[in-house]
Amino acid sequence: MLYPETFDVIVVGGGHAGTEAALASARMGCRTLLLTHNIETLGQMSCNPSIGGIGKGHLVKEVDALGGAMAIATDEGGIQFRILNGSKGPAVRATRAQADRILYKAAIRRRLENQPNLTLFQQAVDDLIVEGDRVTGAVTQVGIRFTARAVVLTAGTFLDGRIHVGLNNYQAGRAGDPPAISLSARLKELKLPQGRLKTGTPPRLDGRTIDFSKCEEQGGDLDPVPVFSFMGRADMHPAQMPCWVTHTNERTHEIIRSGFDRSPMFTGKIEGVGPRYCPSVEDKVNRFADKESHQIFLEPEGLSTNEYYPNGISTSLPFDIQYQLVRSMAGLEHAHILRPGYAIEYDYFDPRSLKSNFETRSIEGLFFAGQINGTTGYEEAAAQGLFAGINAALKCRGDSPWLPGRDEAYLGVLVDDLITKGVTEPYRMFTSRAEFRLQLREDNADLRLTEAGRKLGLVDDVRWDSFSRKRDAVSRETQRLASVWVNPRNLPAAESERVLGKAIEHEYNLGDLLRRPDVDYSALMSLAGGVYANPEISREHLGELLEPVIEQIDIAAKYSGYIDRQRDEVERSAHYENLKLPDDLDYSQVTALSFEVRQKLNKHRPETLGMASRISGVTPAAVSLLLVHLKKTR
Ligand code: FAD
């Protein structure tokens, strides 16, 4: 049957990428259809019940600054919040939350069900409708044909998915969900370059059978309790729960080693490469053979369940080994496994075959986002989904793509890394991937992106009003601080010693004083009985925005010197960053370049010189030679 209504954008898959893609496209006014296997699993966390962390939290804040759902759903479903790296510089500080997976899913579903312009439909997609080199729709398992001008594919770990537990294996998308076999075959037929990756998950435990008195308690931050969304409030969190810590020991490691001969990883049953940064416990014991113990976090899965997620023992060893290894740890001697751990292998597509807007180069209108692009993690998926949803909507509107730079957002770093470098293992975000990380902080994600989001049509009036008040207050106060001068005549020495540590010797403006590492805004405003304080920077005027405004003024002052230096670097590299490389450039003719570099450039065909510079093996010297060649020939 041909479905009577036609859509602008169809999103296939209701995971973290698909839900953000569908919401973004619909917010931008496009008639959007979200097709997914099962409406009950919208926003499901396949693995750990937590959101954020270093690099990942940065992405979540950016998704939020663009009006996305992940951060606010975490605020509504979060049961433990922490600021990681709290004592380090603001650039590497990151928010991490444990989520009640049921409440999280409900928060996502509520947003999807109430989003204007968005239609949900439950059914597996088995085929794409492709006319010439254009996608025009998708066909479901029972033959319903939905048509659209763009299709965003976010099938996660489901394409030709195969679960492994020991030497047993079977086809599945993740435990309890069907795989996407027909769609995988169709994509192979379309000759989109693909490979296999794998990821794994630990067994889940029944909390009633855990002896928590033998574990260390780890609570969240309570003063204050952090929030994820710029629109979030701590009173949205349902309750706070502790996590617990136990450890593997020599006995655990012996048990694990005794299962190596039945491990699908070590016996070659699994071919796909797994995430190096999230290794299975057997991988850890094998690679770090001299380590006597590994820390295991017991994380609650929610308020209404006894289920616990033992973070650190992801495994695909046979079940009898899983059973023994769990019971070898303190507090887990009698633990009952509710669900076995497993590894899953699945198809991914080489992201270097995508354009910079995530549209496939070979099929117009077909966009890929999420784990299908070789990444791992909910946050990476959500950020890509939002990006693909925006660009699919822009394409339908006939507008140019939206492409944030590497100096504007982690989202820009993520997209650029994927399309230029591709992946050799599941890609996850780290702050070290961003060369401009001093300016890409969690705290200023809104100041970096919300205006762009508003222009794109992603940001509603409530968020825009709140953001505008914050931005304007920060900007007015920063200007005021630069215009208020103190000198040894009008500032008594005792006062200056109290706040600044020593008497000032000549005239300074307040902005200069705030740049000093040990002077913060509140202390500065207490100078001389508060005569320099601004009554507009008060709870009465700013309400909940007060702390974020003060934080921003403080951080901007402390970082301004470093950021200026970094900005110079950005500007210096910008002159070649965006220089377009001609589509018809035959790199094999650029004989000044080494054979390897010519081969790489011909293979990846970067769109700009900046993208070329980030292909592994393309050195700064090669980039200079390419520049010389372009100047000579064009
Ligand atoms: P998914 O969340 O997988 O969502 C895909 C969605 O598409 C699902 O709703 C599915 O039903 C739907 N779908 C697929 N095919 C079709 C079709 N043909 N028709 C209709 N609907 C379809 N991440 C980490 O960061 N750390 C980890 O340790 C980790 N371990 C993991 C372990 C396992 C076993 C699994 C399965 C995942 C793990 N992940 C881990 C990855 C994390 O779950 C993913 O990165 C994230 O969920 C990807 O989001 P996504 O939206 O791309 O795909």
TrEMBL record:
Gene Ontology cellular component list: cytosol
* Gene Ontology biological process terms in this record: tRNA methylation; tRNA wobble uridine modification
The entry's localization annotation reads: Cytoplasm
For molecular function, the Gene Ontology terms on record are: flavin adenine dinucleotide binding
The record lists FAD as bound by: 13-18
Task: Using the UniProt record, give the first listed, main subcellular location.
Answer: cytoplasm
Q: Which UniProt keywords apply?
A: Cytoplasm, FAD, Flavoprotein, NAD, tRNA processing
Glycosyltransferase found in the keyword field: no
Identify the residues that the record assigns to the tRNA uridine 5-carboxymethylaminomethyl modification enzyme C-terminal subdomain domain, covering every copy. 557-628
- The residues the record assigns to binding NAD(+) are 274-288
Which cofactor(s) are needed, names only?
FAD
Q: Extract the HAMAP family matched here.
A: MnmG_GidA (MF_00129)
Q: What does this protein do?
A: NAD-binding protein involved in the addition of a carboxymethylaminomethyl (cmnm) group at the wobble position (U34) of certain tRNAs, forming tRNA-cmnm(5)s(2)U34.
> What family classification does the UniProt entry report for this protein?
Belongs to the MnmG family.
Quaternary structure, per UniProt, is: Homodimer. Heterotetramer of two MnmE and two MnmG subunits.
Any idea what this protein is called?
Answer: tRNA uridine 5-carboxymethylaminomethyl modification enzyme MnmG
